[in-house]
């Protein structure tokens, strides 16, 4: 999965049971190698659609929710931060079927913060550049700073 910094990411997690008379009772999302969940849906006491959602605000800071209506289902993170770039794992426990694990790598694309155009003397140029004599050779260099 890919997302642009400050955009929206969906980490897919299929909560549909493999057999028709089963249902999801627990959904857990893990971030990187952290052994504790960063997001959970606990439906052990009833329906998944009325279950309690919990989010680890030290990681997700109220930026995440689980979208059950989307296809595929998944954890939505908005806005995406550069620090969200990581491996994620979704575990779904069912009443009768074996647990399902889905792994996803989220690649966060950080757009350039500053762009500089340099002339052949390595001086920054901007706006209207020139004039240059007809037939002359002109060299420009583009430097990008993403930090």
TrEMBL record:
SUPFAM superfamilies: Immunoglobulin. It comes from the Eukaryota. Residues 1-105 form the Ig-like domain. PROSITE patterns: IG_LIKE. This is Ig-like domain-containing protein.
């Amino acid at each position: 999965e890919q997302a642009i910094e400050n955009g929206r990411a969906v980490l897919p997690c299929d909560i549909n049971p493999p057999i028709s008379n089963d249902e999801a009772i627990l959904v857990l999302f893990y971030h990187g190698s952290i052994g504790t969940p960063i997001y959970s849906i606990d439906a052990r006491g009833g329906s998944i659609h009325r279950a309690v959602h919990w989010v680890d605000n030290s990681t997700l800071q109220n930026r995440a929710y689980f979208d059950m209506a989307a296809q595929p289902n998944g954890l939505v993170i908005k806005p995406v931060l550069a620090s969200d770039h990581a491996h994620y794992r979704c575990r779904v426990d069912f009443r009768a079927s074996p647990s399902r694990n889905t792994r996803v790598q989220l690649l966060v694309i950080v757009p350039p913060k500053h762009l500089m155009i340099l002339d052949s003397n390595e001086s920054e140029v901007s706006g209207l550049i020139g004039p240059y004599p007809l037939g002359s050779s002109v060299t420009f260099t583009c430097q990008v700073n993403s930090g």
